[in-house]
Amino acid sequence: MGQVVTIDGPAGAGKSTVARKLAERLGWHFLDTGAMYRAVTLAAIRAGIDLGDEPSRARLVRAVSVELTPDSVRLDGVDVSAAIRSIEVTRATGTLADSPSVRALLREWQRAFARDRNVVTEGRDQGTVVFPDAFRKFFLTASDEQRALRRLEDYRTRGQTVAGDLNAVLREIQDRDARDTARAIAPMRPADDAIVIDSTGLGVEEVVEVLLEAIQKAGAAVPTEAPT
Ligand code: DC
C-alpha cells in the first residue's frame, strides 16, 4: 500500500478542488470516490433498475467497470465525466451510497487504487472506514451558506439550470448531509485522528497550504514547488 492522505467532509466544502491541488503539489495520485458512486448510479439509471432494490443494485455494481484516469471518469470504457455531474445523478447517488453491497465493492476498488501508489483521496468515509491507517486525515467543512454558494457556482460553470435559488441549493446540500450523516453504514464523520478544517472564507491555495504543513509535520517529504 502506498501512502494515503484522506480528505472527508460534506458536499460543497471544496474537497475535490483541494484534494486535486494537494495531489499535484505532492506529485501523488488523486482519488475522487464520489465520482465512483456517481458512475455506478449513472449505470443503474441507464439500466433502468430500481435504485432502492438491494439485489438489483448488487448485481449491477458487480457487472460494471469504473476507471478513474487523471482527467476522466470511465464507465465500461466510455468517458462519463460530464454525465455523472448532472442534477439527476447527483440526487440519485445518495440511494446507491446507502447500499451495503455497493459500499463494500467500492471500498475494494478504492483500496486497489491505492495498492501501489501514493494517493490523496476524498469522500465521506475515507479516514474512518476505507483507509483507517492513512498517513494523515483531514475533515474539511465550511458554513452551509458558503457551501451552497460554491455548489450553485459549480452548476452554473457547467451550464446547468438550477430550479430555485440559493435557498433551494442550500436545502439540497443540507438534505444530502443529513442523509450521509445518518447512514447506517459508513456514516460521514471525522475520524478520531482527523484534523478538522473550516474552509469558510479561505481560498483553495490557503487550504492547500494548511494541509501541506500538517503533512510535512507528519513526516512526508513535501516538494517546495508543484511538479511539472
Ligand atoms: O462528493 P460527491 O458530491 O461527488 O459525492 C456523491 C455522493 O456519493 C454523495 O451523495 C455522497 C456519496 N459518497 C459516499 O457516500 N461516500 C464517499 N466516499 C463518497 C461519496
Number of distinct helices: 9
Q: Could you tell me which ligands this complex binds, including any ions or cofactors?
A: 2'-deoxycytidine-5'-monophosphate
Q: Which shape, going by the Cα principal axes?
A: globular
What is the mean pLDDT?
Answer: 93
The amount of beta strand, in percent, is 5-15%
Q: State the domain count.
A: 1
Instruction: Give a count of the beta strands, DSSP E runs of length 2 or more.
Output: 8
Task: Write the CATH fold name.
Answer: Rossmann fold
Name the strands of the widest sheet in spatial order.
2-6-1-7-8
Q: Which second-level CATH architecture applies? A: 3-Layer(aba) Sandwich
Helix content: 40-55%
Unreliable stretches covering 5 or more consecutive residues:
none
* Biggest sheet descriptor: 5 strands, parallel
Rg calc:
17 Å
Structural class category: alpha/beta
Summary?
The chain is of the alpha/beta class. The protein has 9 helices and 8 strands. A 5-stranded parallel sheet has the order 2-6-1-7-8. It has a 3-stranded antiparallel sheet with strand order 3-4-5, with helices on one face.
Describe what you observe in this structure:
With 228 residues, this protein is of the alpha/beta class. The longest helix has 17 residues, at 166-182. It has a 5-stranded parallel beta sheet with strand order 2-6-1-7-8. Helices cover 49% and strands 15% of the residues. A hairpin with a 2-residue loop joins strand 3 and strand 4 (72-75). The chain is globular and about 50 Å long. It has one domain (4-211): Rossmann fold, CATH 3.40.50. The mean pLDDT is 93. 2'-deoxycytidine-5'-monophosphate (DC) binds at residues 11, 33-34, 37-38, 93-94, 97, 123-126, 176, 180.
